[in-house]
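Please predict the structure of the following assembly.
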Amino acid sequence: MPVQFADRMSTVHRSFIREILKVTQDQSIISFAGGLPNPELFPVADLKAAAVDVMQEAGPQSMQYSTTEGFEPLRQYIADRYKKVKGIDVSADEILITSGSQQCLDLLGKVFLNSGDNVLIERPGYLGAIQSFSMFQSNFLTVGLEEDGPDLTELEKLLNENESKIFYAVTNFQNPSGLTYSPEKRQGVADLLRGRDILFVEDDPYGELRFMGESYQPVVRGYLKENGILLGSFSKVAAPGFRLGWMVCSGEMRDKMIIAKQASDLHTSTFAQRVIHRYVTDNSLDEHIEKIRARYGSQRDVMVKAIEAHFPEEVKVTRPEGGMFLWATLPESMSSMDLFDEAIKNKVAFVPGRPFYVDGSGENTFRLNFSNADEASIEEGIKRLGDGIKDFLSR
Amino acid sequence: MPVQFADRMSTVHRSFIREILKVTQDQSIISFAGGLPNPELFPVADLKAAAVDVMQEAGPQSMQYSTTEGFEPLRQYIADRYKKVKGIDVSADEILITSGSQQCLDLLGKVFLNSGDNVLIERPGYLGAIQSFSMFQSNFLTVGLEEDGPDLTELEKLLNENESKIFYAVTNFQNPSGLTYSPEKRQGVADLLRGRDILFVEDDPYGELRFMGESYQPVVRGYLKENGILLGSFSKVAAPGFRLGWMVCSGEMRDKMIIAKQASDLHTSTFAQRVIHRYVTDNSLDEHIEKIRARYGSQRDVMVKAIEAHFPEEVKVTRPEGGMFLWATLPESMSSMDLFDEAIKNKVAFVPGRPFYVDGSGENTFRLNFSNADEASIEEGIKRLGDGIKDFLSR
């Protein structure tokens, strides 16, 4: 007799995107479905030099068990960078190194969520967070995103009418929508949250990938001084294969996070932490990020221009100033799932929007990734997709 | 107002061992408290060569996101090694690569444990498992360990009188006791479990570290064909700092594990997986393990001999044929916590046994690690400890 699974497993499923990515393995398909950074930009030679140096100078230590909090010099580097880049005060003791920022979501669930607790997310929302919080049988509430951040009227109503443990948000170049909170919306969110028993979790993997316009301070510590947690990651500014993320939090909260992390995987790879630390110490991360910005910015421009040339006017598409994604909205009557099936026949792929909506809406939306396709493919793929949409609209 | 923590956090605490290890940071203390492999034995040069080769030959791929299951060639290597070393059939598709084998425990909890579910563990039991399952608010039942494995009469009674989801066991050179299940006990456990709705989770991080005597087949797949999961790790045979472990399981169970793993950290470091794969491909892991065996075996012999010379007869100590630990039992009336305080004054440390017992017993036991101290320190440390024990007994 098979052993019964836990209740939580009945509410979670294999990632829909994962299944879609399988379909797009076919090399003849131009795929805008993934969410991958461009591997041509990984600083392979510099990371190799860093790995060699670490092994030469601290071989045994870099391969031994280490503390759950993470490598202190790396935590100090991250803290210093917050001051330099974002202008906010963070100490090394407030950083917890995690196995990718995805692990932060799991630790947040462990430390804060009882079954049935409300979690407030954006609509559309980040799929990894939906998956992770679902494991804790949380109940999702959603606040709609406008061009410049969440609908504050809707947010206030949600906060007044429900008790939620966590409000999870991606404030810069959100996945999937590419949208960014304006300073006014940041201030508005902080004003609405202040004094309430709700934790604002601000995930910011894309913030440094800004191609144009100006950066804003994080809501946490910039606008909101209490009940905030910041998440960060080296995946988009260095390389995701090292699985290195972090969480900024302090006090008792951090103590609990360390307990949860210890029970989850003891600590994050000592070797990976030391190699990335060596890399950011011996090289200029700023210069490297400048290269990523230039490339992604140009890929984004090509995609936007192709969309203007090939998509019918009825399709609305966001124009993000950074990040990795564009977000498209078809006319109400159209299903992006139906379009997906058609698009695959035309050898082009994207991610239909519905999985990003926990309320079953979003049928007419889809996500386009521009970071991991060359410019010729972007031009050609968008043309194919535009033709497919036109076919649909003319039926 | 601070946000309320989840209920599960009220039952788990910072690792006791972690706190003890802080006390033993003092360089003048000879510590048998840790559970660390000897870093002098890490194959630094070979791992460095492997890292360089991976970065030269598959740089971008080794730094990109990858599949949740893990790097296929590494899974194939592990499957082949099971056949070669343990004589059991495992396919690459049954291996799930994890971020250390500690993560296997977290995934098991996620996939199987509802709050209040019974989990059967050994008495004494592995602390990492107690911590990890505690996060799922499990209720622990314990079966006592005899010299050759669990007390089968007690096990049968426990199985008859309670429904448990999981029986978690370390069958070779257990942490903390150093004890190993005999073939008869393996058969006995399998016979008792067969046909019941209970999952046997066999953790085997130390199995290959055998200094003398013969190895036995795992219970899972060797003696028990159903409802078994095997856990493994590169931490003790290569290096722990890469955080690479794995789980052997199949069918729907594996599908659920992949969902849980994806929600937990997406996947384990692509780079770490490829480096370890390259290392085991270009080098003989068998030869390397032979070096570890020789060194640990000799350290174990020195510790056993020193114990025979310096401990009073009333103290019983296990004589394991492998692994990293000895287990000591003081006379009933003595507390190893009290001895610990005294020992620290004499500049020697160990881990008191009580944390390994969820039922509050074990007051008179303690764990000694022999893998991470040189032979002169072992001789001197055991002498100091023996003197402390004699002082106590003469009071």
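Residues 45-282 of chain B form a domain with the Aspartate Aminotransferase; domain 2 fold (CATH 3.40.640.10). The mean pLDDT of chain B is 95.
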